[in-house]
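Archive maintenance. Older records in this collection stored only the sequence; we are now back-filling the structure field for every entry so that each record is complete. The fields below show one back-filled record exactly as it appears after the update. Entries are processed alphabetically, and Stage II sporulation protein M is next in the queue.

ARCHIVE ENTRY
Title: Stage II sporulation protein M
Organism field: Caloranaerobacter azorensis DSM 13643
Length field: 219
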Amino acid sequence: MIVLGVNLKKIFNNHFQKYIFLYFLVIVFLMIGISTGAITIRTVDDTAREQIINYLGSFSSIISKDADLNTIKVFRYSITNNIQTIIAIWLLGITVIGVPIVLIIIALRGFIIGFTVAFFIKEFKIKGLTLSLLYLLPQNVFLIFGFIVTSVISILFSISILKNRINVIRRPSFLNRFVNYTITMFIISIIIIIGSLVESFTTPIFLKVINNYLTVFMK
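Back-filled structure field:
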């Protein structure tokens, strides 16, 4: 068991070192998305701000009326949303033109995180920062890591397809590469599932806390 763990660690280290540039590229797009989301909050006018607050306030009725709001429901929603993203990234990896779209997906993920955190900080100040750290950070540690790795794997597969189209003589079996690609994506998706599990436990608490803040805020 220890030997297996050491071997896996060595494989992961070699992989990250070999493709450090791609990881850097994906992380750059993620940071661009986060920065853009955080900056965009400054352009939100009072009307849009009230609409966002009213939208968040609608959770008040959901929480109060739906006594069965639990981890199972949240997990189903989270896993469906995240698996759809993984499938999209997996499919885009099969096409060379999918590389820029994968980077855009990562940037959009970053945008949502940046905008959400910036909104809570702007509206609730230090309490908003605390809420973001306690209830948004835990699941995103797993989700962001999982999406970064799957994005790199997807890009690598696209690049391999392009290389093997050019170098037909040395082209290995596409089916074997496709199966390995799919299995790798499936294994990494386990990290995404863990993130969804964490989210399913933190989200109901998060919504109730936000509901309490909004109730006081909108009075």
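Update note: Residues 1-5 have pLDDT under 50 and may be disordered. The chain has one domain: 19-217.
Entry marked complete.
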